[in-house]
Amino acid sequence: MDVPWLDRTQLAAWVRVAALLEVLPSTLDSQLRRDADVTLFEYFVLAMLSEAPGRGLRMSDLAAQTSATLPRLSHVVKRMESRGLVERRPDPDDRRATVAVLTDGGMARIEQAAPGHVRAVRAHVVDILTPEQLSQLTAIADALLRHLDTSGGMAAMYRRYDDDDAADDADDPSSGNDIRA
């Protein structure tokens, strides 16, 4: 097999990325479970619904925004529905489709979870990087996502805060822009 093996520099970078992909989600998941009794993925679902018009999305759109398969999302939404966080309803525009809607209880849960989650994101990522490193991280993630998300299915989710005005609003609580990370 003629595979160009990774050199030491490439291997050092890759091993760190692989470790980060394991450690960071686990760290954020633990904080959310402890503080708000939701998993990181459930938090993602709640956040996407909280930002959607009418606090609801078709399951297929929600799956695309969370990069989940429909079976996985359906299982998680069913579990969240049993806890009163979301409801599933027929889509009024297409009765064959299902819409996941954030309940008042789900909104209360995301509002409970968001401050601790943002503190954790700041503590474990944002505040330990310089502004230059944060810009570099964004550029690196963009390069990887352009390659991996070839359909652009998740682009709306990860590009929603690229506008300079939105970035300025994120730092201004009076703007009404409620960024939950």
Based on secondary structure, the structural category is mainly alpha
Helix count from the secondary structure assignment? 8
Major β-sheet, in short? Answer: 3 strands, antiparallel
Strand content: 5-15%
Q: Tell me roughly what share of residues is in helical segments.
A: 55-70%
According to DSSP, the number of beta strands is: 3
Low-confidence stretches: 166-179
N- to C-terminal separation?
Answer: 43 Å
Strand order of the largest sheet: 1-3-2
Mean pLDDT: 89
- Rg is 18 Å
- Assembly context of the chains: single chain
Q: What order do the helices and strands follow?
A: HHEHHEEHHHH
The global form is globular
Give structural notes.
This protein has 181 residues and is mostly helical. The protein contains eight helices and three strands, in the order H-H-E-H-H-E-E-H-H-H-H. The chain has helices at residues 8-36, 40-51, 59-66, 70-82, 104-124, 131-148, 155-159, 164-170, and strands at 56-58, 86-91, 94-102. The chain has a three-stranded antiparallel β-sheet with strand order 1-3-2. Strand 2 and strand 3 form a beta hairpin.
In a few lines, what is going on in this structure?
This protein is mainly alpha-helical and 181 residues long. Helices cover 62% and strands 10% of the residues. Strand 2 and strand 3 form a beta hairpin.
Features:
mainly alpha, 181 residues, three-stranded antiparallel sheet, globular
Topology record:
Elements: H1 8-36, H2 40-51, E1 56-58, H3 59-66, H4 70-82, E2 86-91, E3 94-102, H5 104-124, H6 131-148, H7 155-159, H8 164-170
Antiparallel strand pairs: 1-3, 2-3
